[in-house]
């Protein structure tokens, strides 16, 4: 861990020194951490413990006036704890972002490298401002976090090329339309294209009033060893005066990693309401995911159990000590029909301390 921090600081110092040149301008070193305690009373799988959910360190800046770049590393897992067998818990360190974007024109920008897939509103959101103990299940399973195709965990990212822009300004100078489309390897981060076929992902949304977005997304592609995947998402969001309302439905056609189901879908709906503006909030989320597009599990023709729906009913609150330090508390009642058991219901509690630097 010390070596990782030292390397990051050395990288920051090196680029900081170069920031005075004409090529590198406004170089910024930043990051954040998320420390988590989580407990569950799931039958036969009771658990509780502390976890380093996420630590990220990033460098970003501009080259000339029209070119923006970013490099970001991620660390998660417990590096310092030791298991009962004497072995250390796993800690992963990986590059999550490395891209550059030409931003000369507001209506036409070009991004290349490794970055967030242009699919759903929630996927590109910051993990802290996203608002809950984790991204919704449908985004996690169908946007490349813990994807149902078995792709290694990629935090919703891939390697590729993307075009995007905003246009059609109203009388107030606010753009009413946004578009984004890109071609990607389809294998996730830090991985080459295994089947030489590209994933095409895109979306468009309208912004009829300030704070509102209504969008649609599409995704067609494949993954080596699994086959084709075709997905779409319908999204809506309203954020104004520290209130947030957001909902997204995602549908997927294409086999999962175990080839037990070729369709899946999910929906979430959430509200975050201020008790004290920019200081304290209460929140609630309905979060549903169906791995086989089915409510109840079933035995397929190959005598395999295929799970049904998993639903989380969540309530919580957060408090911001400062803009860079906050605490979050969340309770979830879970109905899990993905397991072959008659005990589907259990409870979860999540507490997080989040900080930025």
TrEMBL record:
It holds the Pfam family Porin_O_P. Residues 1-19 form the signal peptide. Keywords: Signal. It comes from the Bacteria. InterPro entries: Porin_dom_sf (IPR023614), Porin_O/P (IPR010870). This is Porin.
